[in-house]
Specification:
Porin, eight-stranded antiparallel beta barrel, mainly beta, 3% helix, 156 residues, 1 helix
């Protein structure tokens, strides 16, 4: 069995927004409001400092003001040190809200990760998302989840 640090792999992740999972907010959302982010990432070969990662993302939230959908693409570089990783990233996507149409939005983030067992990581995302559905405000959130990586055949 190969111990992998995400080089030349496809990753699948799912994470929940920490605030909406555990706390009530001032927008009428109760604790345990579903806000799920999923991602499929393509990960480059491990280099001296880390590896390049590109991803497609989908986020769904069951908000009191109506369903929230965000489709996006992101690029980042994962700096690695043993079982630890740190990825700054930038993304661009579209937000869809009930009765509000679709708008474009930027996203900036940083994601620490920790390899729990081979191919499985704990991930924590610190994300600033342009909420063009809310008059262009940037919203900060923290989400926590798991990422599973599948190694690809090495064709180098």
């Amino acid at each position: 069995m190969q111990v992998m640090q995400s080089q030349n792999a496809v990753g699948f992740s799912a994470s929940l927004d920490n605030k909406l999972t555990f706390l009530e907010d001032n927008h009428g959302n109760m604790p345990f409001t579903l806000d799920l982010s999923t991602k499929m990432s393509l990960q480059g070969y491990q280099k001296k400092l880390g590896y390049l990662q590109i991803a497609i993302k989908y986020e769904y939230a069951d908000l009191s003001s109506g369903d929230f959908h965000r489709y996006a693409a992101e690029v980042g570089y994962v700096f690695t040190n043993g079982a630890l990783g740190l990825m700054p990233s930038v993304g661009y996507g579209f937000i869809g809200r009930e009765n509000r149409g679709s708008t474009q939005s930027w996203e900036f983030g940083i994601m620490p990760s920790f390899l729990i067992i081979p191919n499985l990581k704990l991930i924590v995302g610190f994300v600033w998302t342009e909420r063009t559905d809310l008059l262009g405000q940037y919203r900060f959130n923290i989400n926590t989840g798991l990422q599973f990586d599948i190694a690809l055949k090495d064709y180098r």
